[in-house]
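[Q] Does anyone have a clean structure-token version of this?
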Amino acid sequence: MNIVIGILLVGLSLVVGGVSGLALIRVLSRRKLAQAQQTSEEVLAQASAQAKEVLLQAKEEALKLRGAAEAELREERQEIHRQERRLAHKEENSERRLRSIEQRDNLLATRDKETANIRLQAEELRKSQLQQLEAISGMSNGEAKAYLLQLLETEVKEEASRRAKQWEGEARQDAEERARMILAEAIQRSANEVVAEITTSVVPIPSDDMKGRLIGREGRNIRALEQATGVELIIDDTPEMVTLSSFDPVRREVARLALTKLIQDGRIHPARIEEMVEKAQGQIDVEIQRRGDEAVAKIGIANIHPEIIKLLGRLHYRTSYGQNILAHSLEVAHLAGTLASEIGADVEIAKRAGLLHDIGKAVDHQLEGTHAQIGARIAEQWEKSSQVIDAIAQHHGEADTTTVMSFLVTAADALSAGRPGARGESLEKYIQRLRDLENIATSFNGVVKAFAIQAGREIRIMVKPEAIDDITAIRLARDISKKIEETLQYPGQIKVTVIRETRAVDYAK
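[A] Here you go.
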């Protein structure tokens, strides 16, 4: 019984628990369902609100797009209207132009007809007048033409004669101007430096005690040096130097080299002096040969005899009126070649004659006669061209000038010797002309500085930019040019350059 009762109680408890669980489940389900319904209602409300908002935005956007489209359509319609008006205006203009062209064509046609009629009338009148002229003059048309041609021929010949004289004068003037330009250009191309003329050389010595050693016992050293070189050694009270004097520049250079080596060596006695002089003579011989070869190479001529090349090298040690004779000979060769090329003469012969024109000066202290005569005699031994020999003999007017080459070499020699600054005797005038140029420029208001350059062929003028403007600078250049023309005498032309410069300076701090 207890077991049965227990089973029943268990069963009853299970039934009661199941019923209670079902009831609880139902309650919970109802709550969840209520919550779900509430949530769905809220979601639906939010969705409905968002949908309304989106719909409103879409309507607004559609209204905007519609307004923009309508505005664009209105603008397009207005543009179409404007284009239609322009087309209509163009059509009116075209029609107006067509009418004007038609009127012009009609007017031209009328004028052409009138012109044709006038020409016919003029032709008839000309024929009538011609017949009257023939009747009055008693000449036919052909005879009248012949008479008129004869008169015209006479006038043409007279006019041609006048023109020929005029052209001849102009040609002569142009030729003179051209010659001056050629000479000026030749001078500019061949300008060389000036070398001072000297007949003495100074040799420095370490101390005055060396003077006694150079003199030697009873003067044997100084006598040996003078006998070996042919140069006078002057030892005086001048401190720390001795002087070598001779009119033969080659001997003087040999003595200078030998004496310099003796002083450096310190062993001074007659035997050593002879040895040093012999070595110095060998050095000078090599230098003479080198100078002669360089001169021939600079001119660019060939087939020069070796003896003549040596004489050319000796000219390096000879000066005349402040000009180095070898440099002067090279300059004359260039000038003569330039002049020959301008007149169509033989350029190589001209250069050859110009280079050798003063060859006699290399030995004029050893032979009798002028250097032109000596040079001609030397050239006759080794030079084949008679034009070169004649140019050497005639370049100083000692013989009559007989060839074109002699004229060229004479002109080139005068140009080289007479150009500004070439010789000491004209150097002062040359410097004075440069000073006068600068003084003329600085005499004008507003000029700061003036510089004569290019051997006086150009003057550059610096002006104050605040006082001289661009227009005034042009006028100033012209005024200075006129004053130079009125005041100075000069070869060729002088270029006047006015420089006006403005500078702005500031500092970044």
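[Q] Thanks! Anything notable?
[A] Strands lie at 200-204, 232-234, 241-245, 319-320, 323-324, 447-453, 458-463, 495-500.
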